[in-house]
Amino acid sequence: NTFIPHYVVERIGRVLNDRSCSIRDSKILILGVAYKKDVDDVRESPALEIMEILQAKGALLSYSDPYIPRLHKMRAYDFSHMSSLPLNEDVLKSQDLVLITTDHSSIDYQWVVDHASTIVDTRNATRRVTRGREKVVKA
Q1: Less packed terminus of the chain by CB within 10 Å, N or C?
Q2: Helices (H), 19-120
Q3: pLDDT of 127-138, one tens digit each?
């Protein structure tokens, strides 16, 4: 399990490379930072380690989570400068990649796929998506 965040970041790097981009300076939206779906707890969330690795590689990070309006300083991570962005068409279209790390049931994943250019899905949240499947990569 300790290698999973590194695997996800490696996968993101390959997906971006396939689109002639790199992690550095890419705008990446983390969709869901809670530990598990439909909760407001970030402790032990794998999203935080993924975010730390991506940030160290120069990614321009943001996140959207209906349960986590603001991140706070924690023992191992400090994303206290970040607040959840509204999940809207403009936010999705402005990103190079959307990374789904928590599969909250309140999110319409078909709508996300319709408006995002590239999605890496770590939770199989897009399993029922019928349009735009070519934009979705599983991780």
Answers
A1: N
A2: 46-56, 89-93, 109-115
A3: 999 999 999 999
CATH at residue 86:
3.40.50.720
Rg from Cα positions in the chain: 14
When divided into structural domains, the chain yields a total of 1
Instruction: Give the Å distances, CA to CA, from 88 to 84, 94, 109, 136.
Output: 12, 10, 12, 18
108-121 per-position pLDDT tens digit: 999 999 999 999 99
Which are the contacts of 95, defined by CB distance < 8 A and separation ≥ 6? Answer: 27, 28, 29, 62, 116, 117
Q: What is d(CA 71, CA 33) in angstroms, rounded to the nearest whole number? A: 9
Instruction: Please choose, from the candidates 61, 64, 126, 68, the residue with its C-alpha nearest in 3D space to the C-alpha of residue 89.
Output: 64
Interior CA angle at 56 toward 64 and 12, to 5°? 60
**pTM for this structure?**
0.96
CB atoms within 10 A of CB 25: 10
CA distance 55 to 61: 7
Kindly state the average pLDDT of the residues 74-80.
Answer: 92
